[in-house]
Amino acid sequence: xxxxxxxxxxxxxxxxxxxxxxxxxxxxxxxxxxxxxxxxxxxxxxxxxxxxxxxxxxxxxxxxxxxxxxxxxxxxxxxxxxxxxxxxxxxxxxxxxxxxxxxxxxxxxxxxxxxxxxxxxxxxxxxxxxxxxxxxxxxxxxxxxxxxxxxxxxxxxxxxxxxxxxxxxxxxxxxxxxxxxxxxxxxxxxxxxxxxxxxxxxxxxxxxxxxxxxxxxxxxxxxxxxxxxxxxxxxxxxxxxxxxxxxxxxxxxxxxxxxxxxxxxxxxxxxxxxxxxxxxxxxxxxxxxxxxxxxxxxxxxxxxxxxxxxxxxxxxxxxxxxxxxxxxxxxxxxxxxxxxxxxxxxxxxxxxxxxxxxxxxxxxxxxxxx
Length: 370
Ligand SMILES: Cc1ncc(COP(=O)(O)O)c(C=O)c1O
Description:
single chain, Lyase, Ornithine Decarboxylase, Chain A, domain 1, 2 domains, eight-stranded mixed β-sheet, 21% strand, elongated
């Protein structure tokens, strides 16, 4: 019997998601490349599976590069996609064989040129897209005109220009975001072409949403928008890179947790305390951004509103107090509770030992079959 809480990942679902993504974006370009954002689920079995399927890998740190290498991933299919990199880490990545990097400042570009000579680079620009459910805000991305200037500079520094790159924000539920980004990327590509720089690839980032408590647009709906924008705006021959994390692994995971206790607060609200919270897997409930779905064995009983909280002594370790969560009135201490579609950004976010609680354990289901 596994000790609660734990995450179970279904590899067959990850494989099916990968194949669905490849098929969905195939009309855009015969060379659509799917690059898994390792941060979403840095689980060795999942990396090996996706490597076997022919995926590329977006890595954010030396730790992820080493993890992927240990699973047999060729550094040639990795992209060091974090625009914020120390010079020493670029040098280490280069020594480990990584030859593709993303950047969004001249500062980082100069570090890449110095420590990864001859590497291929993608420039991340801030696309004018609607905010996503878990937005990046303005943390990343230069202005589109600056992307042109920096990619010309990259060429002049002896680097290989891949092309423009944008990310519409994670859990993006507005398909028009991709059309806006692709149109802006095309403007950058055109300006580069005027300077004799051919766009090898346009990276449309991640952000593909999955359904949580509410239903997200289907992959096919977003792919249709992407494919038609690619056909309309991009030069023929510019390859497409799609960099999903959540859409590959999110619905492949289920967290198994337990109710620790129930309390009626002085204001009359019912609080349900779980053995999983913000610090051991549910980080994406910050600002109540991601509204997960709970399943209990008493779901046929009458339901009532509940505040849902984690197990630590921290006042911020509350999953939902503004979002309306309905749970059975009969719920009791010791009851199991499952949290659906928790394969992305859960275990990888959990703290090492806040309050002495261990990180979320991950179990990869043994049903891995073709
Ligand atoms: C550089 C980069 N690429 C891809 C992703 C994956 O995004 P998503 O999980 O929304 O698909 C992220 C997520 O933070 C990212 O930072």
